[in-house]
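WARN retry 2 of 3 for item q-0093 after timeout on previous attempt; input resubmitted unchanged.
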Amino acid sequence: MKSAGFFVLLLCGALFSCGCVQIIINPPGFPGAVAPVATTAPPEPGSSLSGQGSLPGTIAPAAMVSRTGTGDNESLPRFIVPIGDLSRVGHRTFTFNYASGYGGPREYTFRVPVNMSVLYGARQMRVTLPKTAQDPAEVQAYIGTFESDPAMEELYDSVIHELRNNRYHDGQYLSDDEYLEFIVAFVQQIPYVENPSYKRRYPVEVIYDKAGDSDEKSLLLVNLLAREGYDVALLVFEDLGYESTGIRVVSEIPDSSMKVFTDKNREYVFIDAGVPRFIGSVPDIFKTADDPAIYPVGNGTKSYGPINYVWMVVADLKKMEELGKIDRHTPINAWDRTGTCSWIKNSKILLNATCYCCDM
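OK item q-0093 returned
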C-alpha cells in the first residue's frame, strides 16, 4: 500500500512538472465586482441646484497622472474583450422623475438588459484619465475607449430604446430640448457613489451597478446624448482632475450666473451628471478653475435652446439664497424648470427684489 501511494505521488509530481495539469484559481468568468463605496449625499438644493457650494466627489489632481503601468499604447482606444457566455443577460430597473413643459411632473420606470459577458470584460479593464488634458491624441483615445467600443453598442442601444419609448406619452411627444432634459434627468438620478479607485467604471458598469461618480456618469451621459444627435463635448478640467459633459448653446447668456465654455468655434454650458442640477448651473469651484480642454463627442448638431429660461430660474434661486430665504434643505427639483419657476413666482419671496420668473 505504501509503495502504491508513493507511485501515485510520483505520478502527480510528473504531471504538474510537465504542465499537463492546470489549476484555475480564479476562472475568467468570475465577475470580480467590487462593492461600491457609498458617500454622504451631496448638498441640495442651494449648492447642488443653483450652483453654490463645493463639488461632491472632486478627484484630487493627482488622479490625472495615475496610470495602470500596462505599457499599452495610450494614444489608441482600448476595447472590452467579453468574458463568458455571450447569451447571458442581466436586467436593471430604473425609476426617476422628469417634468415636461406641458405634462408636469411624472415618474418614469424602465428596465435595461445588460450583457453579462460585456460586464465581466469591463470589470477587467483598467482605464484612467490621460496624463494631461493638453494631449489631444491621448484624450481622444480615452474618449474613444468608451465611445467607439463595439462591445458597448448593445448597452447604448438598450438604454436609448427605453428612453425613446418613454419620450412619447399620453399623446404628447417630448421636444428635442425636453428630450435632452429627460436624458439628463435619468443619468443625474442614478445614485451618486464615489469611486475611490483610479479605475473608471465603464457605462455598462454604471448601469449594472446603478451607481457612479460624476466622471463615470458623464461618460454615460455624453455618449447617450451624442447618439441622439446632440452637439456635446467632454469638458476636461485638468487642474481639478475632473471631467464633465457640455451641451452646445447658441443663445447669448445675459450674465455670469452661468459660465460658458468655448473652443473658439462653439460654446458649451456645463451639465453636472453627478447630481440633480439645472443644465448650465456651475458649482463655485468651476467658476475659478482653469478653462477646460473641450473635446467634442460624436457628430451631433442639436443644441440646447431654453438656456435663458434656465438662467432666469438659477438667477432667482441664487437671489433667494442670498436673502436667506432658501438653503440646502429646501426641496428644489432640478428636473422641473417650469414648475420651479412657477414656485418662485407664487412664493412671492422676491416680490420686492429682482425676479425674472415673476415676470413670466
